[in-house]
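Appendix B, Record 12. Input sequence as logged:
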Amino acid sequence: MLKLLGAATAIAMTMATGASAQTPAVSTGELQMGDRWTYASRDEITGQDLPTFTHTVTDVTPTEIGIRLTKPGKPNGYITYDRAWNMKSNGPWHYMPNNGFGIKEPLTVGMAWKIKASETNSTNNASWNRSGDVKVLAQENITTKAGVFSTFEIESTIRAESINDPTRKVQLIQRTWYAPAIGHWVKQALELRADGILRDKKSEELIACSVKAAGQECGGLHE
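Logged structural output:
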């Protein structure tokens, strides 16, 4: 059911080339074609490791960021974000104006904002209205296999109702640890409930990256 909301990380080993907490911030305006971030993912209900995946920047325009989603043995997926990492489209799902899970630069602890949007699926004509709240909870250092990062912890709570069947209601709580040093998140935790019942719980954690504006790779990512 995570697909309904467009959704879709092991404490670190010794890092040879991590992005440190002192690394200057990389704004989304500095991202370039070929920048990429690779994540480990985990099913937190079963404890099972899920396939790794990579986000690769395919294009950057004044208003959008194009991402190629790569998973081993799977066809490539393509996601379009705005310049604040709000998702605008993901496969058949389209969001107006966006899915609301982005950031607001410059981030500061205590910032809060509202989400109001709609989403449609061009394959099955499903339509949902969503509303929610976002808050920047804390600033903290996070250690992953990719290195040590200064992050902002952002909690987004989304409530969605099916336009076709208003009795269908879901809630998605997403926690994102966004690292300005690499212009992307290093960790996410997703929890999906339908009619109050937990249906899915997953996590993602950065294991490697290559961001040209940061001037270095993290986690030993090589071609």
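The chain has one domain: 2-211.
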